[in-house]
Amino acid sequence: MKIKNKQTIMIICGISFAFLMTLGCMDRKKGVKDLNFEKWKAMSETAKGHTPAPLTPDSPSKAELKSAEAEKPPPPSVEIEKFLPVIKVGLNMQDVDISVMLKTLAKAANVNMIINHNVKGKATIHVSESRWDEVFSSILRSHNLNYVRDGDILRIISLEDVNDEVKLSEADIKKKLQKQKLKQADPLLTEVIKVNFANAEELKKSFEPLMKGDDGDKQKAAISVDIHTGSLIVRARADDIEMIKNLTRKIDRPTSQVLIEAHIVEATRQTAYELGVQWGGAYKGSVYQIGPNAATNLTSSKLTSQTTSQSAAGTTGGVFDTSVVPEMALTLPGSITASEGLNIGAMIQRAGSNVLAVQLSALQNNGQLKILSSPSITTLDNQTATIESGKEVPFQTVQQGEVNVEFKKAVLSLKVTPHVIDGKILKLNILTHKDELDFTNNVAGNPTIITKNAETNVVLFDGQTTVIGGLNKESLSDSESGIPILSDIPLIGHLFKRTGNKSDKEEILIFITPHLLKEPQP
Fold first, then answer.
1. Which residue has the higher pLDDT, 366 or 258?
2. Residue 514's closest CA among 402, 386, 353, 394?
3. Span 186-253: which CATH code?
4. pTM for the whole thing?
5. Contact, 108 vs 129, CB < 8 A?
6. What are the DSSP E strand ranges found in 421-464?
7. Alpha-carbon Rg of the chain, whole angstroms?
8. Residue 465: is it exposed, middle or buried by C-beta count within 10 angstroms (0-12/13-18/19+)?
9. pLDDT on residue 192
10. Helix (H, G, I), strand (E, B) or coil at 342
11. Could you report the per-residue pLDDT of 243-256, keeping only the tens digit for each?
């Protein structure tokens, strides 16, 4: 009896163990079923993209501050009363000199005051708890006086002084006009200004309005372009030539170059959604982690060269500091040794956006999408880069009995215009165009062309990937199959055949990754 019980217990344990093993294998297969999509779903709440913070404006140089102060108009010679003190004062004086009265009033409000020698006369005043500016203005008006505010100093002047200042201002104006006439009489000089990076013709168009006179008429100064050397030939006065040279030094700088990498894929709606979740705002960070559950930070011993290796025992993985190795590609798997439960072999090299290319290639191998094209092109800042792929379709036209053949493009094109905001942020103007031939709606044997366009402006970080969708394609097909002869029998033939309708909806996704090409390190 005991033996039978032992056998029963062993059988139950064996069945339980087999069931747990089967359940574990099922879970494992379920987890391996679609590893990429599981990662994308986990990132769906975090990979939303970023909006860059506003830039801090550069501080103006001392020369620019000095120039701005020189161009600032002088303060008005006569200030209005709102700049005067408004404190309450009391003053009781009889038959005193007007200058003494004004000095006493200035001392009461701690005002800096200078009284001209032409200010003369005596006055009597008796005020109590009155506003300082009202008392001051009343004294000046009652004695035909005025004041001029020079900085924080009030200068009291008489009517004669006002006339003298008017004459002085007129003399200053005449002096400036005379100086301007002398400037116009200066001889014209000729200078050749070398242009290295900018467009000389565009610089000429920008500088010509600056050479006009105040009345809008062009003077004898002129700017021309030497096409052979790409230089500006300036004929103007010495100060105008110096101005053009300073502006050229500021504008004639190397133009940033941008590498545009694109991946054009055709995927199902679900695959397109999953891809858009991750790569709609993907950005390469400052640290890459390698290995399952990578959590060990090994940045204290950084990689110093491409030949130096770095490893960690156990299954926590390792972290590489990308300030030394900014981008990495891996060769997996590595060998497993007796002392380590998991060992990952890695080859360090610059990988760029190959992570996206590897994932797309893996999905294509699984039959989840089709990579139509993976072009890349380099362009200058603010210059449009055009990528076009397709074919020219012949169309027949009949004119006066003659048959003519014309070709029209049916292409998938991408136009990207980058603008570098600073060394890390780029603004892209993206225009996509897709033509699709529709043979089901032909005219005179010629297929119609279905055109779809998408245009957007987006701000991305250097190396960030954005995705453009919405270029959908729908394919309709009808099929019929059956048993020969029997399927053609009237009334009962439908029992021996089968018809079907199939509708496939696919979406074109365009992944765009801009890379700002850096200056070579010495």
1. 258
2. 353
3. 3.30.1370.120
4. 0.49
5. no
6. 425-443, 446-461
7. 42
8. buried
9. 92
10. coil
11. 999 999 998 888 88
C-alpha–C-alpha distance, residues 329 and 346, integer Å: 8
Token pair listed for 148: 């001029």
Q: Which helix (H) or strand (E) holds 510?
A: strand 497-516
Apex 324 CA angle, 320 and 328, nearest 5: 55
Q: What pLDDT, on the 0 to 100 scale, is given for residue 423?
A: 77
Structure tokens at 244: 């053009």
Residue 60's pLDDT is what? 54
Instruction: Give 268's contacts (C-beta < 8 A, 6+ positions apart).
Output: 368, 369, 505, 506, 507
Rounded to the nearest integer, the mean pLDDT of the chain is: 70
Q: What is the mean pLDDT of residues 161-189?
A: 74
Q: What would be the CATH architecture of the domain defined by 88-163? A: 3-Layer(bab) Sandwich (3.55)
Produce one character per residue of 230-267: b if its CB has 16 or more CB atoms within 10 Å, e if not: bbbbbbbbeebbebbeeebeeebeeebbbbbbbbbbbb
pLDDT digits (tens, 9 = 90+) for 398-446: 777 777 888 888 888 889 999 998 878 889 998 888 887 777 777 777 7
Q: Where are the domains of the chain?
A: 88-163, 186-253, 259-267+368-480+501-517
Among candidate residues 430, 446, 332, the one with its CA nearest the CA of residue 394:
446
